[in-house]
Amino acid sequence: MRILLDTHIVLWALDAPEKLTPKQINALENPANQILVSSISIAELMIKQSIGKLNIKADLLDLIQQMGFDYLDYTAQDALFLKDLPYIHRDPFDRMLITQALQQSCIFMSNDAIIKQYDCHLF
Hints:
4-stranded parallel β-sheet, 4 strands
């Protein structure tokens, strides 16, 4: 499976794995799965760090690679789909991640209840 992680799942996997469900942990550890971190999540985390809402001491990209996760760049084609996405979620980062998951045929791993209202494959 190709699984795109929501930003909070990336953080939990790196720093607070006890917040993940056993099912999520199994999926993240299963070598048959391709675990993807979006460039959107990297941007969101760096913005949070720059305004003092997050303190990541190590190199974030190195941490993600050490976890065995792959990067997925957000494309112009992904962005075009935003115009058709129902305006249920107000967070622009989450909206971009949803469109990316849909456009790139990924399962989206998130604990965000609002995202469940979208027609995307959730984990």
